[in-house]
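Posting for a labmate who doesn't have an account.
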Amino acid sequence: MIPDTKLKQGLRMAGAKFKDGQIVYHANTCDPLTAAADRGDIKMNAISRSTYPGQRLHKSQLPGLCSLGYWDAGKKQSWGLDWHRNEGIEIAYVASGTIDFCVEDKKYELSAGDLTITRPWQEHKLGDPNLTENKLLWIIIDVDVRQPHSTWKWPDWLILSKKDIKELTRFFQLNEDPVIRGNKEIGLCFEKLQKLIDANDPNQNESRLTLCINELLISIHSFLKEEKRPLDDSLIQADRTVKLFLNTLEHQLDVDWSLESMALRCELGRTRFSHYCRKLTNKTPLVYLNHLRIQKAAKLLKETALSAQEISNKCGFNSNQYFSTQFKKFFKMTPHSFRNSETK
């Protein structure tokens, strides 16, 4: 994935071209899946837009639907889908077999009947590292959110009542359990969708696709409502958005961050972003960023033979001189002296 500006380097998101705030991403194209299908190692069919694999949806068809499809792996694979995020809410269903599924810091072994729900900010992968025999069906719908505190906007072609949409949204917002044991009704909905995909003519089947997707969401809503899972309002607070961002910041230190760009990334004003950053770290955003950069530089000085200039670039300092000045303020010695003292 290569974003249009350096601001977004380091984030890994799978899917199509999409916006996060004012930044445009060019996400990867699920190359391992496409290559496996081309080799005949796996059966795959989907209807998609942008760079997702599958039959192309016209821009007027089911706007907001990013991808709807399935794969059927009849044998163990030599690939998996590595860590990624999607621009929409992704619902996947295991029809048969088993799959290793990781979300953030948790790992699951999915089996037939399991349903996964991942939000745009949740990093996840399939296979550990490779896939075993399984059949997986999925749907990804863009609800115009990139952060936990954002307002969800479902496509206009959904026919669920306002009350049901609100309840379904609240579950997706306030309960982030990524794996749910599904039921027969949900499985049958995915089976219907697979048959429509295999008909190979989304133009002719648009009405039926619309009906079946709505039926699936109604079934999921009813199922989750009956389960009465606990909801946690803290999951949609702005400070959680900032916390998630700060947790990934150490992997994006070479980005030319400013207070404005960090606040923009979190879809917050500078004052609110600064408030939450200080609340979480006891530091202002730029002081916290500089702290992470210095710590990474120290690690690279200890563990690698990279030059000071190379380390300065990797850690996001504007110049080697500025890096040396900041490093000396923190460790009371130059990077060169630090490296020599650590390697004795």
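Reply:
Got it, the structure tokens are right above this. The chain has a mean pLDDT of 89.
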